[in-house]
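can u do me a favor
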């Protein structure tokens, strides 16, 4: 089961021994849609630096607004959707790369 909470996606599953296991999905190179949704707002542009927990875009699903937050500091490499677009689960919303160090 996928759980979307506070701009983060979590996977919750039962283990063979019956104990629940939770793991945090921290996309390494891209942020993906957690569920079918409409893109309400894109708050960043390609090349823009973001900090961990910045709201990079807002989705709407089932009449609820879902803030999508940056999982770490980085630079927006590319944006894979636009305002008004309907996205499906797993669709790449935004590609994020590590911040480049200045020499």
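np, heres the sequence
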């Amino acid at each position: 089961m996928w759980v979307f909470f506070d701009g983060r996606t979590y996977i919750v599953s039962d283990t063979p021994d019956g104990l629940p296991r939770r793991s945090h999905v921290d996309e390494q190179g891209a942020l993906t849609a957690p569920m079918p949704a409409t893109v309400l707002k894109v708050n960043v542009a390609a090349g823009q630096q973001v900090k961990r927990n910045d709201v990079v875009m807002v989705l709407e699903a089932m009449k609820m607004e879902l803030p999508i937050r940056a999982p770490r500091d980085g630079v927006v490499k590319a944006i894979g959707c636009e305002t008004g677009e309907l996205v499906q689960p797993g669709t790449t919303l935004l590609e994020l790369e590590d911040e480049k160090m200045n020499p």
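The domain at 27-97 is CATH 2.40.50.100 (OB fold (Dihydrolipoamide Acetyltransferase, E2P)). hope that helps!!
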